[in-house]
Amino acid sequence: MIKAFIERVLPRKKPVRVEHSGKALGIHSEHMSRNAVYVCEKLQRAGFEAYIVGGAVRDALLGVIPKDFDVATNATPEEVRHEFRRAFIIGRRFKLVHVMFGDETIEVSTFRSNRGGEVEADATGRITSDNVYGTQAEDAARRDFTINALYYDPTKDVVVDFMGGLKDVEKRTLRLIGTAETRYREDPVRMLRAVRLAVKLNCSIAKATATPIREHSELIKNVPPARLFDEIQKLLLSGYANATLAELRKHGLAEGLLPLLDLIYQQPGGQKFIELALDNTDRRVREDKPVSPAFLFASLLWHQVVKRWSEIEARGEHHVPALMLAMEQVIDEQRETITLPQRFAGITREIWLMQPRFEQRTSKAALRMVEQPRFRAAYDFLLLRAAAGEIEQELADWWTNFIESDPDIRQELISQRQRAQLKHGGGTSDAGGRRRRSRGGRGRKRRDDSNDGGTGDTGGSIE
Ligand code: ATP
Ligand code: MG
Predict the structure, then answer these.
(1) pLDDT, mean of residues 40-64
(2) Residues contacting ligand 1 via CB (< 6 Å)
(3) Second-level CATH architecture of 172-256
(4) In 3D, which of 279, 454, 295 has the Cα closest to residue 375?
(5) In the chain, which residues fall in CATH 1.10.3090.10?
(6) What CATH code is assigned to 293-449?
(7) Which residues contact 382 (CB under 8 A, 6 or more apart)?
(8) Whose CA is nearest to atom 7 of ligand 1?
């Protein structure tokens, strides 16, 4: 409180520009994308200042290979566009330029300022528009963490530091620029970024940056759902989803993102299910294999669907229509916090809807099911459920055997099930693997402890 007050009445300390040789810091223009270097050179030749900035500089200094590159310049978006053949201005109020090179896009932003009076904010202090151009020092001050406010000039091979970012790189510390409370109010996503980047970069969060998170976690609710989706997708596809989600929970941030997440964790099988799904995703990301956000969201929301599904069934609705109703309710509720884009929501629904169909092993439907485009993802999801002890492993094994068999053997496997069912005086449906209302790990234990989520090689790799 007192700190925030002092910050308001006293002018912020003027940032001091310090230059360091890249060579001495162990970075080199060869660590950077050739295209990003080219963008800087071209803008500089046209008489502008241009630097590689933010995550790429930070990652290179921390020994992490940067994935995407941003350039900051004093050229306006129109001036930047003029310099390149394939450059597009994006955003209306918050203009940026995307310079395209094959499948790489370099994002170029004009130095911006946080100058009071010209920045629009809502009632909670969240900045809704800050498209005011400024100096490089002002641009540094409006970035989030000190280690994200470093600029690298690849032609001169110098790192420019205004905020003490290099010291924090050395200490591997994430420290917000300015007063944490104010910065979180301006943009609550910074709380998620603090946790995500700390896990990804194996850094600690400075005390003054970490402590106010719990108290301000409610502010996440003010962030537009589409922006939250982008952020949570980054988080889930970082290769450290499991660890990051655990950290978010420690800081009291998880529940606002995925409603009932804490409740899911409390259910006996819930935590295991999500951990298996995320472990599998993390491994795939680290192995550079494709992963599907739709599969991931299917996993994260599944236990809510299951809970709703049994409630609706208990009210007398039929099995599959009850599932459909449950799915729609969960997707609708989720939309209020994180908007699941339609293209993902459609696949997520298909994965869920195929689950009861795996229980039907005595009809020709099983043969047709394998032909469906989402079969592989739905099957991976089935394996995940078995690994979490939610359904009988036998059901998952039967399907594994089924898809690995030749067509005539598949037919024979179905006939075997039909005969077995007749022998046991079978009913109309084959619910052999389903453990209805025993979704909490009471199912048969997995056969091994390999913890691989059982999700084979496609592990939800659709998309
Ligand atoms: P990542 O490794 O996820 O790409 P990043 O820090 O590069 O991390 P970007 O979203 O690419 O994240 O952002 C690029 C830069 O823009 C950041 O390094 C930071 O300087 C600035 N930035 C991003 N988000 C914010 C924010 N919410 N508030 C202030 N500055 C931000
Ligand atoms: Mg980045």
Answers:
(1) 97
(2) 54-55, 68, 70, 143-144, 148-149, 187, 189-190, 193, 234
(3) Orthogonal Bundle (1.10)
(4) 295
(5) 293-449
(6) 1.10.3090.10
(7) 355, 358, 391, 395, 396, 399
(8) 55
pLDDT at 115 over 90: no
Tokens of 454: 């059982």
Known catalytic residue at 122: no
Ligand 1 centroid – CA 44 distance (Å): 23
pLDDT grade for 436, boundaries at 50, 70 and 90? very low
pLDDT value at residue 430:
52
CA dihedral of 220, 225, 229, 230, whole degrees rounded to 10: -90
Question: Mean pLDDT across the stretch 196-203?
Answer: 96
Atom of ligand 1 nearest to the CA of 234: 3
Of 207-211, 351-355, 441-445, where does mean pLDDT reach its minimum? 441-445
| C-beta neighbour count of 5 within 10 angstroms | 10
- 279 in catalytic set: no
Range list for CATH 3.30.460.10 in the chain: 2-171
Mean of the per-residue pLDDT values of the chain:
84
- HEC profile for 345-381? HHHHHHHHHCCHHHHCCCCCHHHHHCCCCCHHHHHHH
Domain 2-171 sits in CATH 3.90.1150.10: no
Residues 6+ apart with CB under 8 A from 174: 145, 147, 168, 194, 197, 198, 201, 203, 204, 205, 206, 209
Q: Residue for token digits 């295991």?
A: 272
The residues of the chain that CATH labels 1.10.110.30 are 172-256
Nearest CA to ligand 1 atom 16: 54
What is the pTM assigned to this prediction?
0.79
Distance between CA 241 and CA 280 in Å, rounded? Answer: 10
